[in-house]
């Protein structure tokens, strides 16, 4: 489907963009200051929010398995098949169950709501938002992995300035060298990711996996622990991850997304040397926070410079992160110049950076594919993807 949308765009044929939404489940459940009102949010709040505004769900949902919530070591919520290897029922880890359940619920569908469950990690009763009861879209996952060996799993430990890379120039090379203690720590992290992805693979849920993003920061101070490193070492990191997930773990449900920061020169450099290779990547994207609808970069049509730059890879192109919806009063023709196959809005940015009228403008546009079933105004039969996969 994604390749078909891309091919239509390249051939100048009428095409569509799937509207997406990132959901920060750890912040919804545990951070009372997060989002558009004070207080903890029900998990899936920002997946549901577009439907509250427009009556339509996003056609793509990305959840985040990492970074954890400033807790020691990896953990999980209630016991599941992947729990044997990890401490279970620990506070602040129930959101990982929400993440895999919500991803499955987007692909499979949930009725008026998911069946309530009591999460033994904090005693909360969890109910995920319903989306029509049938196949309702496609799912993705990012992984803000704290640096390998980090004693605390949380966002602050994903940052390069807080990692060994900040003071040991040889540390990153050891992470990608087989047999080192640092690579052992990396594989522990990847096994946590793989166990949760395997839970989805067992249900035949395809996942657009977007790891090690924004790698082209100018230096260690400007990004994640994998950013600003020597390109050949970054490529080894990606290939190690790929070989472990696909080769060692045998996961069959992954669509790999490579997404640099916009290469505007001040904060990030050209990303081309970081590209892992065509055999390791299925979709290319960009996390665009460098320009806004009101002030497009270099005065070009908004996001077109990144869209044009990624054309060299002959892959479907995705706006992987943006605070803004693509179609607004300031930029009503964004997708004419840059018809991304997916456009994903980051978390609470949906309501913080967009007016309700601009969200409606996007979700009601004829070029946009929304989610949910036909009763939610969806413009695509998401169940047809299930049938075609069985036919193959």
Concise summary:
The chain is α/β, with parallel strands linked by helices and 392 residues long. The protein is 29% helix and 15% strand.
Question: Can you walk through the features of this model?
Answer:
With 392 residues, this protein is α/β, with parallel strands linked by helices. A hairpin with a 6-residue loop joins strand 5 and strand 6. It is 29% helix and 15% strand. The two termini are 14 Å apart.
Fold topology:
Elements: H1 2-10, E1 17-23, H2 25-30, H3 45-54, E2 57-58, E3 60-64, E4 71-72, H4 95-108, E5 117-118, E6 125-126, E7 138-143, E8 152-153, H5 171-175, H6 181-201, E9 207-211, H7 231-248, E10 254-258, E11 283-287, H8 304-309, E12 317-322, H9 334-337, E13 342-345, H10 349-352, H11 356-363, E14 368-371, H12 383-391
Helix pairs in contact: 4-6
What's the arrangement of strands in the largest beta sheet? 1-3-7-9-10-11-12-13
* Overall outline: globular
* Uncertain ranges: none
Strand content: 5-15%
The average pLDDT score comes to 95
Q: Ends: how far apart? A: 14 Å
Number of strands: 14
Largest β sheet strand count, sense and barrel closure: 8 strands, parallel, barrel
Instruction: Give the H and E element order.
Output: HEHHEEEHEEEEHHEHEEHEHEHHEH
Percentage of residues assigned to helices: 25-40%
Secondary-structure-derived class: alpha/beta
Count of discrete alpha- or pi-helical segments spanning 4 or more residues:
12
CA-based gyration radius: 20 Å
């Amino acid at each position: 489907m994604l390749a078909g949308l891309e091919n239509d765009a390249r051939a100048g044929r009428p095409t569509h963009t799937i509207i997406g939404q990132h959901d920060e489940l750890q912040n919804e459940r545990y951070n009372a200051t997060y989002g558009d009102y004070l207080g903890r949010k029900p998990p899936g709040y920002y997946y549901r929010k577009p439907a509250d505004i427009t009556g339509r769900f996003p056609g793509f949902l990305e959840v985040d398995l990492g970074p954890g919530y400033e807790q020691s070591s990896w953990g999980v919520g209630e016991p599941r098949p992947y729990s044997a290897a990890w401490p279970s029922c620990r506070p602040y880890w129930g959101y990982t169950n929400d993440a895999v359940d919500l991803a499955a619920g987007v692909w499979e569908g949930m009725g008026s709501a998911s069946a309530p469950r009591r999460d033994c990690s904090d005693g909360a009763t969890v109910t995920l938002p319903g989306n029509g009861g049938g196949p309702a879209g496609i799912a993705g996952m990012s992984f803000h992995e704290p640096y390998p060996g980090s004693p605390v799993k949380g966002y602050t430990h994903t940052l390069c300035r807080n990692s060994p890379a900040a003071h040991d120039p040889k540390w990153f090379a050891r992470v990608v060298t087989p047999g080192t203690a640092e690579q052992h720590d990396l594989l522990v992290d990847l096994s946590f990711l793989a166990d949760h992805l395997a839970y989805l693979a067992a249900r035949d849920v395809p996942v657009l996996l977007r790891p090690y993003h924004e790698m082209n920061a100018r230096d260690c101070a400007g990004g994640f622990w994998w950013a600003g490193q020597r390109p050949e070492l970054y490529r080894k990191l990606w290939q190690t991850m790929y070989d472990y997930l696909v080769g060692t773990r045998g996961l069959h449900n992954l669509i790999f997304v490579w997404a640099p920061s916009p290469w505007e020169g001040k904060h990030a450099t050209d990303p081309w040397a970081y590209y892992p290779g065509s055999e390791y990547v299925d979709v290319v994207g960009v996390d665009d926070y460098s320009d806004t609808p009101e002030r497009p970069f270099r005065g070009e049509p908004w996001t077109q410079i990144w869209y044009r730059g990624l054309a060299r890879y002959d892959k479907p192109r995705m706006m992987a992160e943006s605070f803004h919806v693509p179609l607004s009063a300031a930029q009503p023709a964004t997708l004419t110049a840059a018809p991304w196959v997916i456009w994903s809005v980051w978390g609470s940015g949906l309501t913080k950076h967009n007016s309700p009228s601009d969200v409606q403008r996007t979700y009601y546009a004829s070029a946009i594919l929304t989610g949910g079933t036909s009763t939610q105004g969806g413009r695509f039969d998401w169940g047809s993807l299930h049938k075609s996969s069985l036919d193959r």
